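Reminder: ligand-aware prediction takes two inputs, not one.
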Amino acid sequence: MDNSLLIYYFSGTGNARNVAQWFAGVATEQNIPVDTIDIARTGRKNIQPPAPGALVGFVSPTHGFNYPPAMMYFIFRFPRSQGNSAFLMNTRAGMKISKWFLPGLSGLALWLFALVLLLKGYRIAGLRSIDLPSNWISFHPGLKEKVVESIYEHCKGITVAFAKKILSGKKVYTAFRDIIQDLLISPVSIGYFFVGRFILAKSFYATNACDKCDICIDNCPVKAILTVDGRPFWSYRCESCMRCMNNCPKRAIETAHGYIIGIMCLLNMGIMVWFWQGVGKIITIPADNGWAKTGIKLTGWVLTFVVMVISYRIYHYLLRIPVIRQLFYYTSGTRYMFWRRYKPSHKMISRLP
Ligand SMILES: Cc1cc2nc3c(=O)[nH]c(=O)nc-3n(C[C@H](O)[C@H](O)[C@H](O)COP(=O)(O)O)c2cc1C
Ligand code: SF4
Ligand code: SF4
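Here is what comes back for the chain with flavin mononucleotide:
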């Protein structure tokens, strides 16, 4: 039997990667052989099984109350246990107001994948959320540096304490404290997986400040940015990890809030109204026919999705016209200087590329 430790992580802006490294640091102090592996670099195919008996850790950000798809698919494909134990951690959107540290929300993130690993024969040694600063800057401005430093210091202590317990053979299931709220929020996790994440992925664009350095393209962990018509183009592979937007040296990546609001209004007030009126003219659905109602609702969702896809192509094409590009630019909240980019703590991290 092996006493080594393997930690697999996925990280957009560095939070999960730092948690993995803090944990690994504790193992190194105790002379436990440890490897930290970035799953974006290893790929999902032909994952080597861990040595029999080794402890395996999975660390990932939380996206839409779940693990991001890159980590999901990785765990689904992960080899079956050979007498292994596993722990799962998720970094969440922590905040600090006055002297209080506020937690994020995990939803299905830990539960679903603890179940998958259990079914693969792993013993679950620990489940822990770490509330590092929120990096979701297409949604809100990044936190101030001082707040980031303070949250980082707080979370490092929590991670180290958790690592010491797990490495001493204890079982730590801190996540059970949140189980009720996590289950209540699980329908949103499902909605985000099937719809929300695609809308978000389409909200990025490069402004006139882009000098085509390709840094965003080269560093995207899931290779989601393509070059179309000589400009970066965000494909549906994008996991909204926020790395590109936070790291662009020209601050040239923005979120098209105006476009997203516009297309939502068009869908809700125009296209969908037209769709429901059309349905009403063709068929009358009896009030008690649940199946027919669900079918029509699903068709409505598919139509919404198709309109989103078509509209994004049009939007990307329109971005070539300078005056329209300016229009999108002026309606993007992220262009204003108060909308800070997120940088993990300068003192306590290893920075991502
Ligand atoms: C698209 C997106 C969705 C997010 N959803 C959640 C969420 O559901 N719950 C939460 O607590 N934090 C959420 N966050 C915040 C991140 O999980 C958090 O900031 C994490 O620590 C980032 O880790 P990373 O730097 O390793 O990518 C979200 C962030 C992004 C970008
Ligand atoms: S990193 Fe910024 S400047 Fe470089 S190609 Fe991407 S958007 Fe353009
Ligand atoms: S395109 Fe940007 S936000 Fe999307 S996955 Fe790649 S680096 Fe992350």
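Residues 12, 220, 222, 224-225, 234, 238-244 surround iron/sulfur cluster (ligand 3) (CB under 6 Å). The chain has a mean pLDDT of 88. We will return to this case in the review session.
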